[in-house]
Amino acid sequence: MIKLSSLTIGRSAVIREFEKSDIHIKLMEMGCVPGETIKVEKIAPLGDPICIIVAGYNLSLRKTEADHIWVEEIAV
What we know:
Structural class: mainly beta
Strand order of the largest sheet: 1-6-2-3-4-5
Shape: globular
Number of strands: 6
Largest sheet: 6 strands, antiparallel
Radius of gyration: 11 Å
Strand content: 35-45%
């Protein structure tokens, strides 16, 4: 497993778990739930924010938020 912030553009992964913090509730309310497939759509030139596709919509996350999400990359 790797952190979501480590994925590169165009890569897909399945959310596996969150680091324990207050932000995990906010992330789950936005559709980032364990078992959900995500795809990295864009990354800003300086690496922050990260735009992902989750639950059928685009979501922008700060890199610090993406650091709390552990994913399992889907092999292409």
